[in-house]
C-alpha cells in the first residue's frame, strides 16, 4: 500500500502546474453546464482546442511514428463524433430573449473530464515508460484513443450548430 501511495505522490508531484490549472478550468466550465445556460459556439470550441493543442504537440514532437499516429487520430474522430452526437441527441434547446439556451446536462462535464483523464493517464504512462514513444502499436493506440476522445467534443458542437440553424430559421 505504501508503494502505491509513493507512486501516486510521485506522479502528482511531477505533474506540471498548468495541468492542474486545466483540470480546474474543466471542472468549473463543466459544472456551469450542469444548469441551464446560454450557448456560445465560440466558447464551445475552447475545450476541444486545448485538448487538440495538447495532443498534437505531444504527437508531433515526441512520438516516433507521428504520421501513422495522426492517421489513426483523424480516423477515430469519426466514431467519437457519432457517439457524442448520439449522447446529445435529446438535449433540449430554446430561444430566450434572442439568445440560444440549453438545458443543464452532465454530458459536457463527463466529456471534458474523460478527455482530461485519458490524456493525463496516457502521458503518465509515457513518462513512466518513454520507450513507448517509439512503440508502433502504442502509437496506434494513442492516436486512436486521443482522436476518439476529441471527437466526443464535436458531436455536441455539431448538435448546437444544427439546433441554432433550426431555431433561428423557425423564429424568422
Automatic annotation (TrEMBL):
InterPro entries: DUF6622
Entry keyword set: Membrane, Transmembrane, Transmembrane helix
Superkingdom: Bacteria
Transmembrane segments: 6-27, 39-56, 68-88, 109-128, 140-161
Residues annotated as signal peptide: none
Pfam families given in the database record: DUF6622 (PF20327)
Name used for this protein in its record: DUF1453 domain-containing protein
Amino acid at each position: 500500500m505504501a508503494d502505491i501511495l509513493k507512486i501516486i505522490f510521485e506522479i502528482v508531484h511531477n505533474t506540471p502546474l498548468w495541468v492542474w490549472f486545466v483540470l480546474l478550468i474543466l471542472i468549473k466550465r463543466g459544472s456551469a453546464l450542469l444548469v441551464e445556460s446560454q450557448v456560445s459556439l465560440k466558447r464551445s470550441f475552447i475545450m476541444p482546442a486545448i485538448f487538440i493543442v495538447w495532443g498534437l504537440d505531444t504527437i508531433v514532437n515526441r512520438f516516433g511514428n507521428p504520421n501513422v499516429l495522426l492517421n489513426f487520430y483523424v480516423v477515430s474522430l469519426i466514431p467519437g463524433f457519432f457517439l457524442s452526437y448520439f449522447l446529445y441527441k435529446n438535449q433540449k434547446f430554446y430561444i430566450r430573449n434572442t439568445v440560444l439556451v440549453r438545458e443543464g446536462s452532465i454530458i459536457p462535464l463527463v466529456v471534458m473530464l474523460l478527455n482530461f483523464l485519458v490524456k493525463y493517464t496516457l502521458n503518465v504512462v509515457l513518462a513512466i515508460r518513454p520507450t513507448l514513444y517509439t512503440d508502433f502499436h502504442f502509437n496506434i493506440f494513442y492516436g486512436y484513443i486521443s482522436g476518439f476522445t476529441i471527437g466526443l467534443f464535436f458531436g455536441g458542437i455539431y448538435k448546437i450548430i444544427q439546433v441554432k440553424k433550426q431555431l433561428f430559421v423557425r423564429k424568422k
